[in-house]
Amino acid sequence: GQATVTTVNNGGIQNVNDGTAMGNTIAAGGTQNIGNAGHAIDSTIYGQQEVAAEGIITNTVVEGGLSYLHEGAQSTGNLTINNGGLLAVNATTVTDRTVDGVSIDSNSQMVVINQTGEEGFLTVGDMVNDGMVIINGFHSLNGESDTTRPFEDFVVVHADTLAGQGSILMHTDIGQQKGDLLSVGQLDAAAQQSLDVQNNAASDVTVNDRLTVVTTDSGGQAGQFVLSHAVEQGGYQFGLRQINEGKDWELYALDQNVPPSVDPGKPVGPNRPVLSSTADAAANSIVSTYLANFVDTQTLLHRMGELREGQHHVGLWGCAYGGKLDSFGNGLLSGFNMKYYSMQLGADYQVNLEHSRVYFGGTVSYLHGDQDFHKVANYLAKGEVQTLDRDGDGTLKNYNAYLYATYMTDQNFYVDTVLKYGHMRSKFGVKDSVGANVSGHSSLNLYGVSAEVGQRFYLEGDQNFYVTPQAQLTYTHFGSGTYKASNGLNVKVKSRDSWLGRVGAELGYQFKSENPVNVYARASYLKEFSNDGDFMLNHSRESYSMKGHWWQYEVGINAKIGQQHNVYFNVNYNKGQRFNQKQLNIGYRYEF
């Protein structure tokens, strides 16, 4: 049968099977179903149109409504999508043309759905896209959509011609060398399309991987396809460049320095790839575990001042400290700063020997650090990587237990040894290159041993000015751990060792009285001897380094109050290749 110049109002349904409908208007809330080789000509859709079972539509205008083509449906003539309208088209397993021509205005969308279970195809004649084309999206007739779900079967969209200034959303898995593809015969000279390639942090990508996302027969200018944001794949950020004599565009790993070669026969990865904000935060969290351990171990040594003045067998002591660390850019890493506070509680027992004494003790400590990541995301502007000014943060918790033994002679020579076991937990939260929130967490164990020797020399007998040369060596083994990010990226850090040496001297003045007071200044040179550490971005290996040297400066005061109480306060500052540190310490010791 035929239906000519008919209006289907709200709640109404028009079924066109084995017949023709001409000049029909489907009002908002109305539905037109076309199937069984039915044909609708010159329809205007404010409501919903579903075309299936080899149904055909010709010269259709979708005015804020929905047109859904599937199961062999076809559009001939012009298909115009206006005023927030939506065209949903199922991909097929063949390359036959589904849509003769489509024009999408700036407020409208076309969604290409792949339900084939394999690679899908959609062939279009002439396409004018001033809105958005979502390749490999999902759409249901109740209006739900999802463009971020994982995909295994991708879609090739071919357009004989492409014009307009719109955007195209695509999905890729560069690590598997698969992804959606836009194929164009003739690219209009005025066409400009923004590619919104979805991030895929779970991809097993390396910095040498590349993937073509646009091909053309005609070629075009470099700026006719641009990225709406840097593409995060695995732990790296990818950009877009023109290849094949200007005919195609591919995704490639961004370089912090010079872009790699575009010779397709000689793929060259970047020397310094740009990490994703997630990878950068996770790797900087790895560095923060080293710094937190350094802070905690160094602070423990300040108990030496109280032990010198001890006259009793049992000592109970505690200290609190806080400060700030500024970690510099480290190879691929952007750096961060961390404010922290901590508390240590300890007890020891003094054993007197002839002309000497030995202290045996134990300590527990807790450190809490709050990190601020400087670089959290990047985007592309005119082909250049720019830093996006968003905050990223992290938290580190460090739990430690120590055993120590300190030997001191009456001639002020000492040997101090420390055994340590620790457990660290860290988490972070950042925004990726499209502004989505990403979080991650990890934990690791560590153990270490430290030995320090020194000799105090008084310049006038056993009082007043003195100098104390010191040397220390600290070994720490950090266990492995994995940062599991909410976006699918796994950052695994391998176990690693640290060998840290320190030499220095303390210059002080001791006021002899019933309540002795000691003021001092200390300068030390420290050097980390360990090699680089490794971490894996999914399965792609990268490295970081804490190897380097720095200077440590400190001023402080120790005061004995009565026979059983001792208090101390000091300020120290570290300046070096890898980080700077500022810290305040206050402590108290009770003896009986």
Automatic annotation (TrEMBL):
SMART domains: Autotransporter. Pfam families: Autotransporter (PF03797), Pertactin (PF03212). Residues 309-592 form the Autotransporter domain. It comes from the Bacteria. GO terms for cellular component: outer membrane. NCBIfam families: autotrans_barl. This is Autotransporter domain-containing protein.
